[in-house]
Amino acid sequence: MPAERILTRNVGRPDSTTLAAYEANGGYQALRKAVGSMTPDGLTEEVKKSGLRGRGGAGFPTGLKWSFMPKEVDPKRPHYFLINADESEPGTFKDRLLMEQDPHLVLEGTLLGAYAIRASVAYIYIRGEFVHGAAVLERAIAEATAKRYAGKNVLGGGWSCELVVHRGAGAYICGEETALMSSLEGDRGYPRLKPPFPAASGVWKCPTTINNVETVANIPFIVERGAAWFSSVGKPPKNTGPKLYCLSGHVKRPGVYEAPLGLPMRELIEELGGGMLHTDRPLKAVIPGGSSVPVLRADECDLDLDFDSLMAKGTMLGSAGIMVMDSSVCMVAAMARIAHFYHHESCGQCTPCREGCGWLERILNRIETGLGLPSDLDLLLSVSDNIMGNTICALGDAAAMPTISFVKKFEEEFRHHIEHKTCLTGTLAMQGVR
Amino acid sequence: MPRVTIDGFEMDVAPGTTILQACLQRGHEIPHYCYHDGLSIAGNCRMCLVDVEKQPKLVIGCYTPVAEGMVVHTENDKVKNARSAMMEFFLINHPLDCPICDQAGECRLQDYAVTHGTGKSRYTEPKLALAKAVDIGPHVTLDQERCIQCSRCIRFCDEVTKTGELGFFDRGERSQIGIFPGRSLDNAYSGNVVDLCPVGALTLKEFRFQTRVWYLRNTSTICAGCARGCNVVVGVGQQPTLMTTSGQLDDRIKRIVPRVNADVNDWWICDEGRLSYLREQGATRLVPAMPYDAAVAKAGAILAAAARAGTLGAILSPRLVCEDVFAWKTALEAFGGGPMRVHPLRRGEDDGLLIRADKGANSTGAGWILGQSFGATAPFKARTLLVVGDTLDPADTFVPEPGSAAEIVYVGPFVTPASRAAAVSIPSASWSEADGTFVSFEGRAQRVRRCHLPLGQDARPGWRIALDVLHAAKLDAPAWTSADDVLAAIAAKVPELEGVTPAAMGLLGVPARGTVGA
Predict the structure, then answer these.
(1) Cα–Cα distance between A150 and B310 in angstroms, integer?
(2) In angstroms, how far is the first alpha carbon of chain A from the final one?
(3) d(CA A410, CA A408)
(4) pLDDT digit string, tens, across residues B222-242
(5) For residue B131, which phi and psi values (nearest 5 degrees)?
(6) Of A162, B55, B285, B423, which sits 20 to 30 A from B320 (CA to CA)?
(7) Chain B residues inside the 8 Å CB shell of A345
(8) What is the C-alpha to C-alpha distance for residues B480 and B464, in angstroms, rounded to an integer?
């Protein structure tokens, strides 16, 4: 029995991107309620009670994040609310769905967050490649502003909030929250040293809160149905609310699936995803949270997809990009491809990531093409270890974590490549030259 | 004041002090590339990672402020491993072309590779090939392969000169420092990026391939380019010019670099001062027309006769050291006196950073010594002129007007219009060839040091020539045997310079009693 669709209730409906359709389905009632009868701090408190954790990857409690913002607005330092719509983590495509299919839900959530942190401008920083999503959002903003849901004097409550869509220029790093701010300011998308954290000094050195698209899409439902309802969904107390899962790889029906947090992975793959793509190719491995999290072997996949269950298994829910790999996948080739991504996307600002990511890829390519040395596995682990924790932002960790897990969990495959110059999966290693 | 423990050493440090600065305060340097006292903190090199107890990860010492009760380890295994890891990362794409790199010998990559590296690399792949010898400005050449992307040069151009010529281009390991399209690194301080560069990525065109730095004999002195008095280190070539000769040394200035003085020039100097030695080396030195004894005798006779006739006057360059000015004043008074004037140099413009409009490195000191004569504008009636000069710019050189002076006695390092018109000319040592004292526009007395043998034939310190002229004229002369003796006499006679001694000035100079605005 599929769970109630909450975040995706409008997805697939005719004219789902229009204000009329959104309003007809109860849209903007939460904003009306908040602006009319809730204080910003009351809203923050409600979100705190709901247990909502950030859906961008780290799973940080949203209400707590909001509460870090100053309670008064210094006119010289306006508050900014940023929506991180730079969805670029390989295997992740949930925010795109929301923005393209239900832009007003994203906007209503954005407005609610902006209200809670007393922001007068909210920027939606959208991945440059999401040309369609940006256009949909722009249209939705025009509609919402015309009806006083956004802009000056929102719903006559005296609070104003301008919504701005800002398109990125094609850099994965700009999804890192401080790099996003640098980019928004017009500088190179370089992550910043922390502290200060955004709430103290964010974009243009002003108090800033940044949330993921899916995170804010939850807010209208918390306001409408209450924190008690929200915290009863999923696996209370720490993994509450509905969640979008991005299922890709060797399954029959890849796509975005909504379920309460804590969906068993087997259920996602076998039932929602329709099972493995080829009946003769069993499950081999799953990357559960986008390409930067440690991989799980098939025998580790009997678990629930929520922040803490995955953490307990040494990996992360991350952006809930669940990539399913069957027995035909060469883990060396898969890891080399992942390393290629991080090599390509490292911003180059700090030394370990700049130099290390390319090195990792080159070692992996060497192993993949049959030129690996027996010492290369230790070298991969050592280089990863030297990157881990020593960088300005998490991109270095994002390259190191999967490398360590692939090498440790599929060591036999890596060794086979090195010793036999061929691949256990039967695919010829030498063809994989990138 | 927070009390912290660094490597077992407890210390109280001012709030806001970073771990790196706290370590420096007790004389311990945490290795670093991107951090520089004079620039904003980038935190990108990751070389200064240190271990702070109760912190899950290593933190960068350059950015992390101390906090009460903090316990820091800068030399434990975790830190040492991280450092050697960073060194390995730095070197995987570095060309290791030290044999042809001008930075070799004063390169932080070399230094830290020795002190913090493992001595070998596990990187077996081909290194990235990037552009070498990129012309980015009139004085600076960029080698993108050697660059470690510390961004010091970018921050200098953004924050100090505020000219913003440099930036990062491309991404990841392909990212490079570069010059923005259509720009040239041609600001008045461009050479500082070469000093800032911890590796051999930025080199000074005028110094490239001139010598190995370990052949330089370095002397701490004061720039003579303007009234600022920037503290500099002059490097003089000490490499045998040819291996087959009997060991002659190439005793010439090879470069001038800034010397840190927070009260004068911070960490920087301007390009004009940095390259001033080239103008001096390119200038025509005065060649003695007759033996030295004959020259000083003739000068003495002319000056004595003019003094008796009451037609003697003197014009002195504001680039002369105090000792020369004072010696010539003493000499002129012994001859019987006459008006003395500091020759005004062509003024430039104050640029708000270091460069001063007044190009006289010792205008202030010369004025103090000459007293009321300084700045006198009354036309000289003198028919015999003593011209003591050390300037090169033709516009700054005293040009005798026809008929205005019957005779000129010239003392100076270079051939000038005055020397050509002189009845007798005596070559003297130039700025880098004799010891002395400059007083900056702020009234700071600073030591000018002899950096190398005089390039001019038979060129001697100006104060010594003054004494010799007195001796030749059979007049009483002070028993000075060194510039320090002259300075002692100055300190006793000139109230503004009372108490100024070599010891008081030390390396960084001392505000004189007559300090402007004091």
Answers:
(1) 92
(2) 44
(3) 6
(4) 999 999 999 999 999 987 766
(5) -75, 140
(6) B423
(7) 171-172
(8) 8
Question: For tokens 């007044």, what's the residue?
Answer: B358
Could you identify the residue written with the tokens 């180059």? A348
Confidence category of residue A325, pLDDT binned at 50, 70, 90: very high
Residue A356 CA to residue B424 CA, distance in Å, equals 71
Contact B31, B109 (CB under 8 A): no
Condensed to tens digits (0 to 9), the pLDDT of residues A154-164 reads 999 999 999 99
Round to whole Å and give the CA distance between B224 and A297. 73
**Cα Rg, chain B, nearest whole Å:** 27
- Residue B130 C-alpha from the chain's centroid: 33
* Residues from chain B contacting residue A363 (CB–CB below 8 Å): 125
Mean pLDDT of chain A: 96
Q: Comparing C-alpha atoms, which of B366, B388, B402, B369 is closest to residue B313? A: B388
| Segment among B17-21, B254-258, B306-310 with least mean pLDDT | B306-310
pLDDT of B341: 87
Region for B395 from its dihedrals, namely left if φ exceeds 0, alpha if ψ lies in -120 to 50, beta otherwise = alpha
- Structure tokens that stand for A194 in this block: 């922390």
CB pair distance less than 8 Å for A193 and B175: no
Q: Which residue has the higher pLDDT, B403 or A290?
A: A290
Give yes or no for B434 touching A (CB within 8 A): no
For each of the domains in chain B, give its residue range(s) and CATH number, in order of start: 3-75 (3.10.20.740), 98-103+122-281 (3.30.70.20), 292-511 (3.40.50.740)
Distance of alpha carbon B36 from alpha carbon B43, whole angstroms: 10
pLDDT at A2 over 80: no
Nearest to B149 among A354, A359, A390 (CB): A354
Asked whether the CA dihedral A117, A123, A126, A132 is positive or negative, the reply is positive
Total residues belonging to chain B:
518
DSSP secondary structure string for all residues of A102-133: -HHHHHHHHHHHHHHTTEEEEEEEE-TT-HHH
Check if the beta carbon of residue B224 is closer than 8 Å to that of residue B319.
yes
Residue pair A97/A247 in contact (Cβ under 8 Å)? The answer is: no
Domains and CATH numbers, chain A: 19-233 (3.40.50.11540), 241-326 (3.10.20.600), 331-420 (1.20.1440.230)
B434 close to B451: Cβ distance less than 8 angstroms: no
- Cβ contacts of B185 within 8 Å, gap of 6 or more: B136, B137, B138, B139, B140, B157, B165, B166, B179, B193
Half-sphere exposure (CA, 13 Å, Cβ side) for B354?
Answer: 29
Q: Cβ of B170 under 8 Å from any chain A Cβ?
A: yes
Lowest mean pLDDT among A353-357, B384-388, B397-401, B420-424: B397-401
> Which residue type, as a one-letter code, is found at position B517?
G
The first and second tokens of residue A408, run together, are 């440790």
Share the mean pLDDT of chain B.
Answer: 93
Calpha distance A326→A321 (Å, rounded): 16
B439 forms bridges with which residues in the sheet?
A: B445
B197: left (phi over 0), alpha (psi -120 to 50) or beta: beta
Angle at A31 between CA A26 and CA A36, to 5 degrees: 115
Work out the number of other CB atoms within 10 angstroms of the CB of residue A271: 14
> Nearest 10 degrees: CA dihedral of A107, A112, A117, A122?
10
Smallest Cα–Cα separation from B211: which of B254, B244, B245, B182? Answer: B254
**CB distance from B172 to chain A under 8 Å?**
yes
Nearest-Cα distance to chain A for B517, in Å, is: 38
CA B417/CA A251 separation, integer angstroms: 93
DSSP H or E segment with residue B114: helix B108-116
Q: Find the farthest-apart pair of alpha carbons in chain B and give their distance in angstroms, rounded.
A: 88
B172–A171 CB contact, under 8 Å: no
Amino acid in position B117? G
The SS3 call for residue B113 is helix
